[in-house]
Description:
The protein has about 150 residues and is of the alpha+beta class. It has a domain at about 35-140: Aminopeptidase (3-Layer(aba) Sandwich). The protein contains 3 helices and 6 strands; from the N terminus they run αβββαβαββ. It has helices spanning about 15-30, 80-95, 110-115; strands at about 35-45, 50-60, 60-70, 100-105, 120-125, 130-140. Strands 1-2-3-4-6-5 form a 6-stranded mixed sheet. A hairpin with a 5-residue loop joins strand 1 and strand 2. It is globular, with a radius of gyration of 18 Å. The N and C termini lie far apart (about 50 Å).
Amino acid sequence: MEPTLAIIDDVNRDDIRFLDERLYEFNMEASGHRDGRELAMFLRNDAGRIMAGLYGWTWGGTCFIDKLWIHKTWRGHGLGMRLMQTAETEARARGATQMVLGTHSFQAPDFYVKLGFERVAVIDEYPKGFQDIFLRKKLSPPAGDRRPA
């Protein structure tokens, strides 16, 4: 019997987690890299509400930043810089030699360029009227580590 195909716009997060886990299993087998680790950090107010956060992972020598968000009342106070610097320090400690992320032209591409990221690819008209920009920052090894970068 053929599997049933369903198009859904109200997605169950457990189903997405299932896909993520199966894809990671495949990627480990195909690449031989089995060192994947999630990376997340949050800044909370006194009530415990998330006011800023970063989510990504390290895998195969790369730190991928998937999400960076700062509550609008906290923007412009250095929190994005603090989160990114902390992520970079942790990425180096995990042996990453580069960081990779994507942002839209209406988000913060110049912020990432100021942090040493270089634009490596641009997709025009995503979303319509804007660009999707992919950036990379090469990392040197942690201080005291003499491995080549």
